[in-house]
Amino acid sequence: MSKKKMLILCTGNSCRSQMAEGWVRALKGDTFDVWSAGIEKHGLNPHAVKVMAEAGVDISSHVSKLVGDLPQQEYDYIITVCGHASENCPFFPGAARRVHAGFDDPPKLAEHATSEEEALVHYRRVRDEIRAWAASLPASLE
Asked: What SS3 state is found at 60?
């Protein structure tokens, strides 16, 4: 059986979509080929890298990408993980199914944190929510 192709989109491809790509690859790599991209490029968030490493998933080699940076191909699923990406999702030709799986924005949640440890609490919560979503695939796509 061939793998389904999944594209995970968020605004800046720096945190949530990167974590989701890492989790889908780690937990469901036998079912999905997965890519992530953003509507803008914000750079890979170092806190996202850190909390994913704590959970045993290395995303340190990921880079922030735009949709146009990816190879031209048809996807089976386009997943948006933030409201902005959902509202501004580019058009993709073909039969891709669009699914919104929204998650809170860790950098926004952590903007008033007084220490790195306090900030990481928010990243860990969202990381664990994304992990639960990825673990439930493909059922969470219906």
From this structure: coil
Q: List, for residues 5-28, the tens digit of each pLDDT value.
A: 999 999 889 999 999 999 999 999
CB-based contacts of 86, cutoff 8 Å, min separation 6? 80, 100, 102
Cis amide leading into 71 (omega within 30): no
Q: What share of the chain is helix, strand, coil (3-state, %, to 5)?
A: 40, 15, 45
Whole-number Cα distances in Å, 124 to 52, 114, 115, 121, 129: 8, 16, 15, 5, 9
Q: State the catalytic residue, choosing from 10, 19, 49, 134.
A: 10
- Assess whether pLDDT exceeds 80 at residue 83: no
Alpha-carbon gap, residue 15 to 92, rounded angstroms: 23
Q: Which of 89, 110, 121, 141 is catalytic?
A: 89
Which CATH number applies to 4-137?
3.40.50.2300
Question: How many residues make up the chain in this entry?
Answer: 142
Name the β-bridge partners of 36: 8
Question: Would you call 89 a catalytic residue per the annotation?
Answer: yes
User: Amino acid identity of 54?
Assistant: E
Q: Does the predicted model carry a pTM greater than 0.90?
A: yes
Establish whether 82 is a catalytic residue: yes
